[in-house]
Write a structure and sequence with these properties.
CATH architecture: 4-Layer Sandwich
Strand order of the largest sheet: 1-2-3-6-8-9
Number of domains: 1
Distance between the termini: 57 Å
Order of helices and strands: EEEEEHEEHEHEEEEEHEEHHH
CATH superfamily: Ribonuclease Z/Hydroxyacylglutathione hydrolase-like
Strand content: 15-25%
Number of helices: 7
Shape: globular
Amino acid sequence: MHAQADTHAFFDPATWTVTYVVWDKASRHAAVIDPVLDYDFKSGHTHTESAERVLAFLRDQRLQVDWILETHAHADHLSGAHYLQERIGGRIAIGEHIREVQATFSKIFNLERSFMPDGKQFDHLFKDGETFMIGEVQATALLVPGHTPADMAYRVGGAVFVGDTLFMPDVGTARADFPGGDAHQLYRSIQRILQLPPQTVVYVCHDYPPASREPAWQTTVAEQRARNIHVRDGIGEDEFVTMRTARDATLDMPTLILPAIQVNVRAGEMPPADDNGISYLRIPLNTLPVHR
């Protein structure tokens, strides 16, 4: 008899982000995927309500955390990985191509000389196709670049956690205009996901719902192939790239991209404090692309 996994989702309405806890029912070993650290942009204060909800669930369910998994270095929320690890343990992991993202943004932000773009801020860097265990449940890390060079999806049992690569079918797909993004790569990555068995459950990392429905985060490969407004069956790579490029040219940068990236390339840790004991985030002027 195969080990079985269960999943619980936590939706953060401030950033439209979904954090997941997935665990082996028998052993009670678990992974947390894409945890959120709350951040007030106006005051510069961090808060931990979202992370505390996850911690309360883990304690109530008596789960032991083996992994804290990041699908990529998010631009729309600060990672709660470091905060969670300090309280419940687990190894913080991301795809090995995070090094490329770190190298790009260390230059954009002119980060301190001690910051090395070598991925060692994380406990483990996954290679494409690498398998790992959550208790007795086998999981597989899948490289799905395009939104960023380092995006990973995690296949666990009959489900796949796709990060920002795919959204709900009526929302479509992730943007591909961040530094290192590539719409052609994104299309090919999505096709890799859509070749999984049709009944595979797809868990998305964000939802930006139309006014006609409430936030949702669970769909299937079959539903994506039939109804995704950007990449349903019959839409080819050139058509997708033309659409994605035109759409990306109309999008504002995410509100939290500047604080989020600086924290998330460090696995959720804050920058080292200055000699006054305070950590600072940097704002590069006239550097990131702006769409008018």
